[in-house]
Amino acid sequence: MFSGGIPIQITRMKRLQYLDLACNNFTGNIPLSLGNLEAMTHTPSNNSALFSVTNTGFSGLFLYRPVRTDSVSVVTKGQQLEFTSGIAYMVSIDLSCNSLTGQIPEEIGLLIALRNLNWSWNHLSSRIPSSIGELLALESFDLSHNQLSGEIPNSLSDLTSLVNLNLSYNDLTGQIPSGNQLRILENQASSYIGNPGLCGPPLPKNCSATDTAPSGPEEKEVSLYLSMGIGCVVGLWTVFIAFLFKRKWRIICFSFTDSMYDWVYVQVAVNWAIMTRKTCQNRDQN
């Protein structure tokens, strides 16, 4: 039940390689300083922090001793998996099921050792950064149930280690990238459902050249003015043709126009005379 923003101090933990803040009440933006997590920028080795913890423990302040390692549950690849000593090589960030907002930081591409990235069930918006394509070790990628928009970056097809992908229930648009790894994923169509603007395989909606893209504000404004102009021209021609064939209508229209002209002329002349007289009187008084 933690709340508030994710403290930026977490990104100063140089040896942190497994971060799980899922299912809390965190709000605000994802820290831009994720690139400072140095342990996630290179492949874990036998000298990594988690490897030391899973093989040794603390006794008092200074003495290390071997300990028994229990299994650890990790939500990855669309399911809950149990890890024992293998957790030492798991590089993961799980921020799912919170109320995080804002965009996905470009700096995420610096964490090239990530194997699991789960930011589903938040309120993240804007586009998926193209730097995602730098995460070549990524095996599970879940951004479902957010408010992400724009096109899926083509760099996603560069993730050759990917075995689980879930981008469902966002506002993504455009053609789904194709790539050797993306074609062999299981349940491909379910990875993109809930995005009405997406098209192309594995979805049944085709991306044909005749499909019109959503109109932007400028296009809508031009269409509005064009429609108004066409309407005015059609309306004037309709009146002109009606007058051409209806002599009675022409007489009525011209009589009304003459009457209005005379009335306006009289009103202007009278008001002008009154204003001139008042001006002269004020001048004489002064």
What structural keywords apply?
five-stranded parallel beta sheet; four-stranded parallel beta sheet; alpha/beta; 286 residues; 4 helices; Leucine-rich repeat, LRR (right-handed beta-alpha superhelix); 2 domains; single chain
- Strand residues, percent: 15-25%
Full CATH superfamily name of the largest domain:
Ribonuclease Inhibitor
- Domain tally: 2
Order of helices and strands: EEEHEEEEEEEEEEEEHEHH
Instruction: Tell me the CATH architecture of the largest domain.
Output: Alpha-Beta Horseshoe
Give the overall pLDDT as a whole number: 81
Identify the strand order in the major beta sheet.
2-8-10-12-14
CA-atom Rg in angstroms: 35 Å
Looking at CATH, which topology of the largest domain would you report?
Answer: Leucine-rich repeat, LRR (right-handed beta-alpha superhelix)
Termini separation: 83 Å
Helix count equals 4
Q: What's the count of strands?
A: 16
Structural class: alpha/beta
Largest β-sheet summary = 5 strands, parallel
Global geometry = elongated
CATH class of the largest domain: Alpha Beta
Unreliable sequence segments = 56-68, 209-213
Helix share, percent: 25-40%
Question: What would you note in describing this structure?
Answer:
Helices cover 28% and strands 19% of the residues. The chain is α/β, with parallel strands linked by helices and 286 residues long. The protein folds into 2 domains: 3-199, Leucine-rich repeat, LRR (right-handed beta-alpha superhelix); 217-285. The strands form 5 sheets. Strands 2-8-10-12-14 form a 5-stranded parallel beta sheet, with no helix packed on it. Strands 11-13-15-16 form a 4-stranded parallel beta sheet, with no helix packed on it. Strands 1-3-9 form a 3-stranded parallel beta sheet, with no helix packed on it. Strand 6 (72-76) and strand 7 form a beta hairpin. Mean pLDDT is 81; it is low at 56-68 and 209-213. Keywords: Brassinosteroid signaling pathway, Glycoprotein, Leucine-rich repeat, Membrane, Repeat, Signal, Transmembrane, Transmembrane helix. Belongs to the RLP family.
